[in-house]
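dumping this here so i dont lose it
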């Protein structure tokens, strides 16, 4: 963060749709083809939105089956990742129980172990 303060590094949280390499510079463009940044070096990191996936279709299911959720909307599940009778979750929906690791392959393996061991 010291490099940010010194103006040597710029941290941006944007969605890049395209990149064009020309004359030793990279132009990053948004969905409207507007140049977001032009530079010679780019460091990229992928990520995910912190909102619950599938919220639009899950909300009616949550209501109709009286499934427990935290104030943030994420499922409150057991240690075995059970959300309701015969209903188990993995991935982002298991985050409150196990953290963000559940969004990747290692987390999927751990979820599978928990679920299988509980059956």
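and the seq i came up w/
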């Amino acid at each position: 963060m010291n490099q940010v303060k010194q103006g040597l590094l710029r941290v941006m949280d944007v969605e890049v749709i395209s990149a064009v390499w020309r004359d030793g510079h990279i132009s990053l463009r948004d969905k409207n083809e507007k140049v977001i940044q032009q530079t010679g070096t780019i460091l990229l990191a992928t990520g995910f939105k912190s909102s619950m996936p599938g919220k639009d279709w899950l909300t009616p299911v949550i209501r109709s089956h009286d499934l427990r959720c935290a104030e943030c909307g994420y499922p409150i599940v057991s240690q075995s990742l059970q959300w309701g009778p015969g209903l188990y979750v993995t991935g982002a929906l298991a985050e409150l129980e196990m953290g963000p690791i559940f969004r990747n392959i290692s987390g999927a393996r751990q979820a599978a172990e928990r679920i299988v061991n509980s059956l």
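Residues 48 and 83 are 23 Å apart (CA to CA).
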